[in-house]
Amino acid sequence: MTIRERLEQEELQRLSPLAAKAALTKGRLREEAPSDSRTCYQRDKDRIIHSKAFRRLMHKTQVFLQPEGDHYRTRMTHTLEVTQIARTIARALRLNEDLTEAAGLGHDLGHTPFGHAGEVALTQVMGKEFRHNEQSLRVVDVLENDGSGLNLTDEVRSGILGHTWSSTPANTLEGRIIRYADRIAYINHDIDDAIRAGILSNDDIPRSVAAVLGETHRDRINTLVENVIACSMDCKELNMEPLVAQAMADLREFMFERVYKNPVAKGEESKARAILQQLYLYYMKRPEDLPPDFQTQLDFGGMSRVVCDYIAGMTDKYAIFKYNEIFIPAGWQLR
Predict the structure, then answer these.
(1) Interior CA angle at 322 toward 321 and 325, to 5°?
(2) Pairwise CA distance, residues 20 & 16, whole Å
(3) pLDDT score of 69 more than 70
(4) Smallest Cα–Cα separation from 195: which of 248, 117, 265, 268?
(5) pLDDT of 227-245, one tens digit each?
(6) Whole-prediction pTM value?
(7) Which of 36, 173, 197, 238 has the fewest beta carbons closer than 10 A?
(8) How far apart are CA 224 and CA 212, in angstroms?
(9) Confidence band (pLDDT; 50, 70, 90) for 21?
(10) Phi, psi of 212 (to 5 degrees)
(11) Distance of alpha carbon 65 from alpha carbon 115, whole angstroms
């Protein structure tokens, strides 16, 4: 018996009947030989961590564009916080932590530079909605490994695609955990960043929300996570108490009013959108200037799709660098 087979047997004995089991996976897009030492979900987690798209998350905006300070969240730290919250829930419910972790690590791989401002920019210039969850799936299916993708399992792919509340839910409980973990994480760490930036104080949190979720960052996350666990134990679906779910919805609405639409926090977003849109229009006219690995996709991917893939994969800093390189005159110097 290989190590993988032993791990698969342990899952069958230890996990909830409602959990996804590695031995029962629906498989990959392309069949391949299994690992001797890792389950399929452990292998998917490793593939995501070692991908280029995952490394780029450390230089992509979460909420604040180019913040001055070392402690503001990036798309990478957001991903790690989501994954940790999701694992806590999965462990308590005796679901598959490896599957949950893989979906959490991969859920934002397709996010644009400059956060949601980048999504808006590409939506406007392409004339159709850019959805980062769909782009995340495209990254793992197509764009990584020079066009061959990561060839992840069906269950991890479903968790990545279904992590937004506007999308079809994932086909496993583990994948559906990412929806809750993502919202719990971003609402609370965005509050923390907004307080650090001087846009909010903890006293600004609505009293009705604080009465239900708690007064501190720690209390709010703990209340939300423990409530999902308590209301979902041995259930076929994830749940929250209506009072707690409403408090989270009220807190999210408060964040839209005070932070996500705040002119101080979001004042530079028009510039960020302009950078991405001008880069898009430039490469649509000059596809020969795309990197060689993107040029090879033009024949079967379509120019608009390939240009979008290239820009969506940029980090904030690289988008600014390419914009300066293309549009800002370089100083003359004697050669």
Answers:
(1) 85
(2) 9
(3) no
(4) 265
(5) 999 999 989 999 999 999 9
(6) 0.94
(7) 36
(8) 10
(9) very high
(10) -95, -45
(11) 8
